[in-house]
Write a structure and sequence with these properties.
Jelly Rolls, single chain, six-stranded antiparallel β-sheet, alpha+beta, 266 residues, 12 helices, four-stranded antiparallel β-sheet
């Protein structure tokens, strides 16, 4: 399958991380595992939707337009045999600006967009379906989002997410640096991102090490672990298994093209 990302226009960069596009013909019985990346999304299937596969291997068809909350573990999908998918990947701190409400209500879930935020589905679906190229679709979706996207995340949340990108430092220290209390920081970050500051820091660390491990030989993993903020290689592997469902060696040794494509960007 062909995967591509495009940046948002300048006026939406405070809310949207990127638009992504997936087209192609999948194989019957194929599955793909997605892993947490610290970002929520809207996913639009313009042809047959992908199916969600549970731990028993049972597949359940998804809705055509979805809201995907923050993941805390692996998500297994069965791609359709004729895929045409468009995604809106939000900035970590900004998804609630479009989806509204408390993002923790959809943490770990992939739900029909209409159940999460009313009034968005028709306009986004029409925008994506009314254009044929990724560039045209990105422009049409940008116009649709510009009508509903407010000014963006609060400075406190934006500063908190930037601080949590670093593996060092305590949450209390981060809160004091932002001029607030740890309790307030916890509440505001959880509401805006769907995760507590501690959980979000762990996911962002995993996203960082996932990209590095995919490009690094196995003999360098101990160094990568420490440089990425883990105590040692064993700690990193435990966390990787928690988020990806398998050790790094096993995960990268199998077909995982969607997870690797999604994690390849910044």
């Amino acid at each position: 399958m062909d995967y591509r990302e495009l940046p948002p226009p300048a006026g939406l960069r405070h809310v949207v991380h990127c638009f992504w596009f997936l087209r192609g013909v999948g194989e019957a019985g194929e599955t793909q595992t997605l892993v947490p990346d610290g970002r929520s999304e809207i996913v639009i299937h313009l042809r047959q939707p992908f199916a969600l596969v549970n731990e028993r291997g049972d597949a359940r068809a998804q809705a055509s337009v979805l809201a995907a909350g923050q993941l805390l573990g692996p998500l297994t999908l069965a791609p359709s045999t004729d895929a045409d998918v468009v995604g809106i990947r939000f900035r970590t701190e900004a998804a609630s600006a479009v989806l509204g409400g408390a993002l923790e209500e959809v943490t770990g879930l992939v739900a029909p967009l209409a159940e999460v935020k009313r009034g968005l589905e028709a306009g986004l679906l029409d925008a994506a379906a009314g254009a044929s190229t990724p560039e045209a679709r990105a422009r049409a979706l940008s116009r649709a989002l510009a009508r509903v996207a407010p000014d963006g995340p609060a400075p406190l949340v934006r500063g908190a997410v930037a601080g949590l990108e670093s593996p060092a430092g305590r949450i209390g220290q981060l809160a004091r640096g932002l001029g607030t209390t740890a309790r307030t920081l916890e509440r505001r970050v959880r509401h805006a991102t769907g995760l507590s500051p501690r959980a979000l820091r762990a996911v962002l660390r995993f996203r960082r090490v996932f990209r590095r491990l995919d490009r690094s030989p196995a003999g360098s993993w101990a160094r990568v672990a420490v440089e990425s903020g883990y105590y040692d290689q064993a700690h990193m592997i435990r966390e990787f298994r928690r988020f990806a469902g398998a050790s790094p060696g096993r995960f990268f040794g199998r077909e995982a093209s969607l997870a690797r494509s999604f994690a390849a960007g910044d």
